[in-house]
TrEMBL record:
The keyword Transport applies. It comes from Brevundimonas variabilis. This is Putative ABC transport system ATP-binding protein. Keywords: ATP-binding, Nucleotide-binding, Transport. The keyword Nucleotide-binding applies. InterPro entries: AAA+_ATPase, ABC_transporter-like_ATP-bd, ABC_transporter-like_CS, ABC_transpr_LolD-like, MacB-like_ATP-bd, P-loop_NTPase. Residues 16-250 form the ABC transporter domain. GO terms for molecular function: ATP binding; ATP hydrolysis activity; transmembrane transporter activity.
């Protein structure tokens, strides 16, 4: 994979900048406001942690930032796009495909495909030739320490290995923005540590803006920045010096 330590779009250091995001959901006869005018930004090369209690709006924020869930108000500028939500849905999908990686708690792997195929599929969908896809997929899986497990299907992999396949799949396309939603919550301490270190490296070595939603305070150690959200409002935003060698104790 190529190193993208200095990829800066037209918004300078910011890979993504959002202002005034409001998201409401229907609730009974009325509405519940889940994002209450949120301003948010994330820089290239930073591991930005978004923390907050259950129901505080973290996943909704990620969905609004990544073009998955349209906010009622506010705008999102990302990479070379001004006001993502003004694009057609096809162009929003293309933006996501070209530039964004996603890692979720549930791994989202295809049961019938080998580790190698899980990663290849996405790359072919992006337009790589089969040979290019195979090479890139092998490199990405090797980078996450699964070079020896290329032919295994999810059923033969541990939870930690499955999450690493999901990370390889997200990293293989060298995304400029990587969204991770509770990426370690289904894992034990050792596997959680492997995963958070990979996210740290995606930011430091590949220059991705990594936005990681979690309610696990132990992950703060690896972050460049910790943003706290409560009840749809950002209540704290601190830069910090990450410790890439931190040790994640088991639950
Ligand atoms: N599609 C939806 N329809 C109605 N309400 C929703 C919908 N999605 C989320 N909500 C509500 O919005 C609030 C915020 O949800 P969200 O998933 O963003 O929180 P979260 O901080 O990510 O929580 P968790 O840590 O539990 O995942 C919750 O009260 C949730 O019930």
């Amino acid at each position: 994979m190529s190193l993208h330590t200095n990829v800066h779009g037209k918004h300078g250091d910011f890979a993504i900048e959002a202002t005034g995001l409001v998201k409401r959901f229907k609730s009974g006869k009325g509405f519940v406001e889940v994002l209450k005018g949120v301003d948010f930004d994330a820089r290239h090369g930073d591991l930005t942690m978004v923390m907050g209690p259950s129901g505080s709006g973290k996943s909704t924020l990620i969905a609004a930032l990544s073009g998955l869930l349209r906010p009622e108000q506010g705008r999102v500028d990302a990479l070379d796009v001004d006001d993502l939500w003004k694009l057609s849905s096809g162009r929003i999908d293309k933006f996501r495909l070209d530039h964004c990686g996603f890692i979720f708690q549930g791994f989202n792997l295809f049961p019938a495909l080998s580790a190698l195929q899980q990663v290849e599929v996405v790359l072919k969908f992006q337009g790589l030739t089969p040979a290019q896809a195979k090479k890139r997929a092998t490199e990405a899986l090797t980078e996450v320490g699964l070079g020896h497990r290329l032919g295994q299907r999810p059923s033969a992999l541990s939870g930690g290995e499955k999450q690493r396949v999901a990370i390889a799949r997200a990293l293989a396309k060298d995304p400029k923005i990587l969204f991770a939603d509770e990426p370690t919550s289904a894992l034990d301490g050792e596997n959680g540590q492997i995963v958070i270190r990979l996210l740290r490296r995606a930011a430091s070595e590949h220059g991705a803006a990594v936005i990681c939603v979690t309610h696990d305070p132990r992950l703060e150690e690896w972050a460049d920045r910790v943003i706290k959200i409560e009840d749809g409002v950002i209540i704290d935003d601190q830069r910090r010096i990450p410790n890439p060698d931190a040790v994640l104790a088991s639950h």
